[in-house]
């Protein structure tokens, strides 16, 4: 438990998160309207989304399946029976006057996920529930002088809201947990989790309590945080604000607050509602959802190997470092690319080149790995040419650049650019003899045990061969010469 000090008083920090993840279905949760981001305002909202009289919602099965996939991934209970409720409140971008959500019978309950803390230890975070609900629309303030616009394209988009127990103890833990969920939903293929587009956002419930006290302090909720940096800043500010209030004898008011990143502070938005304020009741237009054991078994059987398992396997099979393996499994497509490119062996080298060259190039151009200009078989061929000494690592970078620009034949690029290494032992042996003869004193020093001279000799060979000598073979020839002379 992290602690803060206020004079002589010490406080524990208690945080619970509610993460809203838009599911990447083609249509909305209860209507056939499309969900694609970026359409002109109010062009993707139909009569059901607008809550016109006489319309009836129809549940999107794809959203149910994606919620179940998430539940299985966090070792949760996926319910055979779940119910949709109406959550009643007024907001300008909520056309029904209520939101269809789940309260007492959510689809996912009692899961957990493990995060790595700053000190290298691991902590299990309890996830109380993940329920299905429809998103609201969006209020637009910037482009309307003195007025607000309403865009209902987002209204009805399917979400899962993932709710933790109050078990996080610092802003850094909260960020680590959010990053883990962000990576997981992308890996599972259930959301693009694009924070800039609002498909992955978070509400943070923050409180402090005297050190060791069992009862929780009064919490505030910080709404709609959509970047990892803002989440950390907002929580840290709110902890300090509550500490300052208690230090002068004031009380913390339960309320909803917004974070202003320009001012670096949270601001009161409204008093915090409770479940009773929303007047929940089962939606009379939607029957309870019954999921058969056969249906859930089919979903579970189709689950991909999960990230934690892949990370452990990559370390065991290829000797890949934990932090590198984490990058390779960030999305399912990235892991598939790695495994496809590693089919010829060379898994460790494939991982190194992906992390040092491929992934940064994709990021620089804003490309998903499935749209990479270099296919896994071609990438594997490049790695094999470096591994077997056909080309040097430096020349491999040149080949990579050519492939990235559209070339598809690795050997052709090597031939056209004259990048092949000199790997003929007899040819190199003659040049080694000539080089050592010119540096007799250094060679004697090497034979006396100064192994650092090897780098000097390899450098000289590269000069004499315009960088084409196979350094591994050069090393072997020099050591052989030293042992026989």
Describe the model:
The protein is of the alpha+beta class and 485 residues long. Helix content is 39%, strand content 20%. The strands form four sheets. Strands 1, 2, 3, 7, 8, 11, 12, 13, 14 and 15 form a ten-stranded mixed sheet that branches. A three-stranded antiparallel sheet has the order 6-5-16, with no helix packed on it. A two-stranded antiparallel sheet has the order 4-17. Helix 14 packs across helix 15 (471-484). The relative contact order is 0.10. The mean pLDDT is 91.
Low-pLDDT stretches: none
Cα separation of the termini: 66 Å
Number of helices, counting only DSSP H or I runs of 4 residues or more: 15
Q: Residue share in helices?
A: 25-40%
Cα-based radius of gyration, to the nearest Å: 30 Å
Mean pLDDT across every amino acid position: 91
Layout of strands and helices, then pairs:
Elements: E1 3-6, E2 9-22, H1 61-73, E3 77-78, E4 81-82, E5 85-88, E6 98-101, E7 108-116, E8 122-134, E9 138-140, E10 149-151, E11 158-164, H2 171-188, E12 200-210, E13 220-225, H3 228-247, E14 255-260, E15 265-271, E16 281-282, E17 289-290, H4 293-301, H5 307-318, H6 322-328, H7 332-341, H8 347-365, H9 376-387, H10 393-404, H11 410-417, H12 425-438, H13 440-447, H14 453-464, H15 471-484
Parallel strand pairs: 13-14
Antiparallel strand pairs: 1-2, 2-11, 2-12, 3-7, 4-17, 5-6, 5-16, 7-8, 8-11, 9-10, 12-13, 14-15
Question: What tags apply to this protein structure?
Answer:
three-stranded antiparallel β-sheet; alpha+beta; 485 residues; ten-stranded mixed β-sheet
Question: How is this structure best summarized?
Answer:
This protein has helices at residues 61-73, 171-188, 228-247, 293-301, 307-318, 322-328, 332-341, 347-365, 376-387, 393-404, 410-417, 425-438, 440-447, 453-464, 471-484; strands spanning 3-6, 9-22, 77-78, 81-82, 85-88, 98-101, 108-116, 122-134, 138-140, 149-151, 158-164, 200-210, 220-225, 255-260, 265-271, 281-282, 289-290.
């Amino acid at each position: 438990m992290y602690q803060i000090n206020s004079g002589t008083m010490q406080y524990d920090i208690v945080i619970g998160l509610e993460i809203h993840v838009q599911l990447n279905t083609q249509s909305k949760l209860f209507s056939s309207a499309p969900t694609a981001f970026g359409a002109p305002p109010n062009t993707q909202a139909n009569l059901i989304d607008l809550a016109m009289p006489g319309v009836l919602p129809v549940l999107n099965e794809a959203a149910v399946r994606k919620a179940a996939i998430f539940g299985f991934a966090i070792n949760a209970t996926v319910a055979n029976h779940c119910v949709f409720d109406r959550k009643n409140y007024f907001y300008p971008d909520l056309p029904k006057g209520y939101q269809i959500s789940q309260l007492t019978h959510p689809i996912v309950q009692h899961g957990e996920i493990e995060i790595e803390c700053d000190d290298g230890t691991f902590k299990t975070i309890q996830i109380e529930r993940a329920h299905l609900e429809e998103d609201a629309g969006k209020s637009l303030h910037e482009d309307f002088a003195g007025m607000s616009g309403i865009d209902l394209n987002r209204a009805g988009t399917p979400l899962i809201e993932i709710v933790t127990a109050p078990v996080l103890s610092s802003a850094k833990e909260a960020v680590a947990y959010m990053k883990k969920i962000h990576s997981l939903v992308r890996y599972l293929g259930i959301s693009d989790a694009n924070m800039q587009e609002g498909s992955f956002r978070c509400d943070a419930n923050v409180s402090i309590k005297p050190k060791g006290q069992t009862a929780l302090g009064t919490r505030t909720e910080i709404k709609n945080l959509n970047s990892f940096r803002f989440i950390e800043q907002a929580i840290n500010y709110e902890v300090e604000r509550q500490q300052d209030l208690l230090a002068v004898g004031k009380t913390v008011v339960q309320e909803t607050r917004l974070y202003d990143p320009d001012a670096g502070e949270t601001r009161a938005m409204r008093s915090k509602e409770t479940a009773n304020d929303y007047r929940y009741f089962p939606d009379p237009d939607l029957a309870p959802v019954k999921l058969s054991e056969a249906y859930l078994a089919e979903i579970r059987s189709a689950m991909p190997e999960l990230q934690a398992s892949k990370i452990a396997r990559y370390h065991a099979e290829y000797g890949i470092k934990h932090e590198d393996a984490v990058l390779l499994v960030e999305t399912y497509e990235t892991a598939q690319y790695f495994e496809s490119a590693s089919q010829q062996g060379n898994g460790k080298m494939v991982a190194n080149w992906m992390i040092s060259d491929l992934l940064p190039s994709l990021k620089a151009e804003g490309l998903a790995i499935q749209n990479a200009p270099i296919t896994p078989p071609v990438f594997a061929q490049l790695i094999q040419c470096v591994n077997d000494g056909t080309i040097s690592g430096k020349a491999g970078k040149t080949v990579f650049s050519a492939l990235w620009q559209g070339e598809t034949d690795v050997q052709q690029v090597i031939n056209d650019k004259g990048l092949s290494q000199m790997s003929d032992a007899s040819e190199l042996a003659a040049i080694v003899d000539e080089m050592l003869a010119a540096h007799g004193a250094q060679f004697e020093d090497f034979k006396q045990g100064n192994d650092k001279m090897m780098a000097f000799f390899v450098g000289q060979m590269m000069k004499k061969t315009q960088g084409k000598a196979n350094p591994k073979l050069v090393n072997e020839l020099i050591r052989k010469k030293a042992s026989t002379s």
